[in-house]
Amino acid sequence: MIAWLDANLVSILNGVAFGLLLFTLAVGLSLIFGMMDVLNLSHGALYLVGAYAAYRVVGEAGGSLGAFLLALGVAGVLGLAAGALLAGITQPLARRGHLHQALLTLGVALVVADLLSALFGDEVHSVAAPAGLRGSVRVLGHGYPAYRLFVIGVGLVLAALVYLLVERSRAGAVIRATVADRDMVQAIGVDTRKVLVGVFAFGTLLATCGGVLGGPILGAQPGLDDTVLILGLVIVVIGGLGSVKGAFFGALLIGQIQVLGVTLLPEYASFLLFGTMALILTLRPAGLAGTAARTAAPGSSG
Q: Is residue 7 in some structural domain?
């Protein structure tokens, strides 16, 4: 066992890095769908917006850490604006069910993807890691890219911050109360529209910033939005809707399955991904950290 772990240490670390990168996308998708009851199929396109923002600001030749932080700032602003816009255009569809939301946000995703292709072309663009994070470090005797360790560290910090925000803060309590009983929250003077917009904007900000973080690993290219969206949806389903812990452990699990599956059993990689999802849903229909029954959707009353 120890020999196997040593031989596959780099792949395992790659799985952790990839999983935590997917977490930045999946947790926002989970919060928007699980708490706000909005199925946002444009989430992958927003990730791609962040990836292209990293390519435009940082470039293939690389840049300073300041340029990378600037790319994060640009992506964050774009994510907040997109979230506010999507919250506004999906709110009238709250009573019509998820199909209407899915069609609307899918249309937005297709438009955004086509615009990005028109602006940047259809070729694959690589994004250099920021200066100071381009080399390798030794981890238990193995060389490992410093930037991927940076992504692991950022992902762990982000997971802790999002958990504290949603589960332990006053703002998180207001969000959960809005999901449980929107009318009651309105009665005590809270503007629930701002709560809905805030959650949506926060989720889309995570998606665009995740695209910047993933730029040096996955690059920026057409079709990447579909790939990360599918993986994000799988994580949300197996983790449990609206659960930060579920998104975290689901992302780590899917990261390992994707990386180790491709490395060790490439011909069964797709089967392992969806087979794992089917197995988890058979044993725990609500997901790893989901509740047995969902609370009422915020748009279902008032």
A: no
Local structure of 275: helix, strand or coil? helix
Q: Which amino acid belongs to residue 205?
A: L
Write out the residue range of the structural domain in which residue 111 sits: 12-300
CA pair distance 111, 89, nearest whole angstrom: 15
- Quote the tokens at residue 226: 């579909």
pTM across the whole model: 0.89
Nearest to 15 by CA among 144, 125, 205, 127: 144
Residue 283 within a domain: yes
* 289: nearest Cα among 243, 253, 251: 243
**Residues 252, 185: Cα–Cα separation, whole Å:** 35
Asked whether 239 and 288 are in contact (CB, 8 A), the reply is yes
Q: Which residue has the higher pLDDT, 2 or 115?
A: 115
- CA 212 vs CA 72, 115, 209: distances in Å: 6, 18, 5
Residue pair 145/13 in contact (Cβ under 8 Å)? The answer is no
Q: Are 261 and 268 in contact (CB under 8 A)?
A: yes
DSSP annotation of 240 reads: -
| pLDDT score at 62 | 67
Instruction: Please report whether residue 2 resides in a domain.
Output: no
DSSP state of 137: E
Please tell me the distance from the alpha carbon of residue 68 to that of residue 52, in angstroms, as a whole number. 12
Measured over the CA atoms of residue 44, residue 45, residue 51 and residue 53, the dihedral's sign is negative
- Alpha-carbon distance of 81 to 61, in angstroms, equals 29
